[in-house]
């Protein structure tokens, strides 16, 4: 496709050169200009022919953008030669007449040709057989956005077969270093997602890790949703299934970031087995005692507001796994486990079927989780944020507690007298959920709150 466009562009350059044969400058002092422009157009045509013989590889976005821009420039220049507003209109077929053109018009055309020559020269260096050289650090003259050139260079390095593995890994990492909305958008639009996927498939562990991290970072751009096609999800699933542990951690973080920024991607990940594989990793982390927060954080983001995914947790061992991590995990594992339980229970609060399925009062798993939540509320008095998350989780499932459940209510009433406002407020909200009329046992729970001294608080 690019080669065809180049063929049309070469023909347009030849037409432009023929039009210069009939051009006459209005100033005798600058009569040499048409010959000078003819020489430049000949040089441009030669460079275009050289570019058409080059191997443009798999990444042709820079060529398309620059060639289209040169085509527009030549069209404008040709129009000015054949139909200048201040001169007599001369058709190209009337070869016996000359077109008289002001000097300023020639000077503008000359500047456009110089810029086009610079652009095509840059493209030729861009696709030379060896690795990119230092000359590429000078962007094409006609580019208005320097950021676009930087994106082209780094994506091209990811595609370039002659570039060292280390350079490709560094390019993937550098794509994620610039916290700039325009930069992120350009990476996505200019084919960066495809280049990163290629590195994840073919590159070494370091490159795969950097590529996964960059894909997660791109989640901050709204345009990622349109470009997060099935290939990305399939690649994530493949890494989670058979990749190295470090790359799996990076993929889980990417899934977490993408799901948090774009909840509409939750079901997309579920359809491609990403959720199921992360649930498997959660159980593995408990057995092996490694990377305990990796899967928990991702699953927390995936479950938020999603009944189908939350139900898949209930149908697996993941709820029990969250309880184990809450009891025995590292500080981060405990944090993301309680957050996951909190968002799952928030979904269950509005979903009666999920409550009956996963949080039945007779369920050993739910009793175990409830015990851990109560214990953490009591133990983590110095960590008010963690206490708040545990209280929210309990409050979300106030409807599941039977009439004889007083341990939770007693502890929540005690927290009303605490010094931390956030903890006190959340305890009050949770007790309200126990005593509201929507709760089947609201009368029994209200009596328990009064008995525990809740009225005086």
Strand content is under 5%
Largest sheet: 2 strands, parallel
Average pLDDT reading: 80
What is the assembly state of the chains in this entry? single chain
Structural class, please?
Answer: mainly alpha
- Report the radius of gyration as a whole number of Å: 33 Å
Kindly report how far apart the N and C termini lie.
76 Å
Give the fraction of residues assigned to helices. Answer: 55-70%
> Do you know the CATH architecture of the domain at 1-55 and 62-82 and 103-127?
Up-down Bundle
The spatial strand order of the largest sheet comes to: 1-2
Low-confidence stretches: 84-98
Pfam families: DUF7792 (PF25055)
Organism: Prunus persica (Peach)
Protein name: DUF7792 domain-containing protein
InterPro entries: ARM-like, ARM-type_fold, DUF7792
Give the helix/strand layout:
Layout: H1 2-20, E1 23-25, H2 33-52, H3 61-82, E2 99-101, H4 103-126, H5 146-159, H6 165-175, H7 181-189, H8 192-202, H9 205-217, H10 224-227, H11 230-242, H12 245-261, H13 266-271, H14 274-288, H15 292-303, H16 307-314, H17 318-328, H18 331-350, H19 352-358, H20 364-379, H21 384-396, H22 407-415, H23 421-435, H24 442-451
Parallel strand pairs: 1-2
Can you walk me through this structure?
The chain is an all-alpha fold. Among the domains are: 1-55 and 62-82 and 103-127, Transcription Elongation Factor S-II, Chain A (Up-down Bundle); 148-227, no CATH class; 377-456. 70% of the residues lie in helices and 1% in strands. The chain is built from 24 helices and two strands. It has a two-stranded parallel ribbon. Helix 5 (146-159) packs across helix 7. The longest helix is centred in the N-terminal third of the chain and has 24 residues, at 103-126. The protein is elongated, with a radius of gyration of 33 Å. Residues 84-98 have low confidence and may be disordered.
């Amino acid at each position: 496709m690019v080669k065809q466009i180049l063929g049309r562009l070469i023909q347009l350059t030849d037409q432009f050169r023929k039009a210069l044969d009939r051009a006459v400058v209005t100033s005798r002092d600058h009569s040499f200009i048409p010959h000078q422009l003819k020489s430049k157009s000949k040089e441009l045509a030669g460079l275009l022919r050289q570019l058409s013989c080059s191997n443009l590889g798999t990444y042709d976005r820079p060529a398309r953008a620059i060639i289209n821009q040169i085509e527009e420039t030549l069209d404008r220049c040709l129009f000015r030669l054949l139909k200048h507003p201040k001169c007599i209109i001369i058709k190209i077929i009337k070869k016996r007449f000359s077109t008289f053109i002001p000097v300023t018009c020639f000077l503008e055309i000359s500047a456009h040709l110089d810029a086009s020559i610079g652009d095509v020269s840059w493209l030729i260096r861009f696709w030379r057989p060896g690795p990119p050289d230092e000359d590429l650090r000078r962007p094409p003259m006609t580019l208005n956005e320097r950021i676009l050139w930087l994106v082209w260079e780094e994506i091209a390095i990811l595609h370039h077969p002659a570039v060292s593995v280390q350079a490709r890994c560094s390019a993937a990492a550098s794509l994620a270093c610039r916290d700039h909305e325009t930069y992120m958008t350009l990476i996505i639009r200019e084919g960066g997602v495809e280049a990163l996927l290629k590195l994840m498939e073919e590159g070494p562990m370091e490159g795969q890790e950097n590529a996964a991290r960059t894909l997660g970072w791109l989640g901050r751009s709204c345009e990622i949703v349109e470009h997060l096609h099935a290939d990305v999800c399939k690649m994530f699933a493949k890494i989670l299934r058979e990749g190295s542990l470090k790359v799996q951690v990076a993929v889980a973080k990417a899934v977490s970031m993408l799901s948090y920024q774009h909840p509409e991607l939750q079901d997309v990940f579920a359809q491609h087995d990403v959720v199921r594989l992360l649930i498997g990793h959660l159980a593995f982390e408990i057995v092996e005692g490694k990377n305990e927060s990796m899967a928990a954080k991702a699953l927390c983001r995936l479950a938020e507001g999603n009944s189908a995914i939350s139900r898949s947790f209930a149908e697996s061992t993941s709820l029990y796994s969250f309880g184990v991590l809450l009891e025995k995990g590292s500080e981060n594992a405990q944090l993301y486990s309680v957050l996951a339980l909190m968002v799952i229970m928030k979904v269950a609060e509005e979903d009666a079927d999920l409550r009956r399925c996963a949080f039945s009062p007779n369920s050993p798993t739910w009793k175990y989780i409830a015990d851990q939540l109560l214990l953490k509320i009591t133990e983590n008095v110095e960590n008010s944020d963690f206490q708040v998350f545990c209280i929210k989780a309990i409050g979300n499932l106030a409807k599941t507690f039977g009439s004889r459940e007083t341990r939770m209510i007693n502890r929540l009433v005690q927290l009303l007298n605490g010094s931390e406002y956030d903890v006190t407020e959340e305890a009050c909200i949770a007790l309200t959920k126990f005593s509201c009329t929507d709760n089947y046992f609201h009368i029994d729970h209200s009596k328990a709150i009064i008995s525990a001294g809740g009225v005086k608080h």
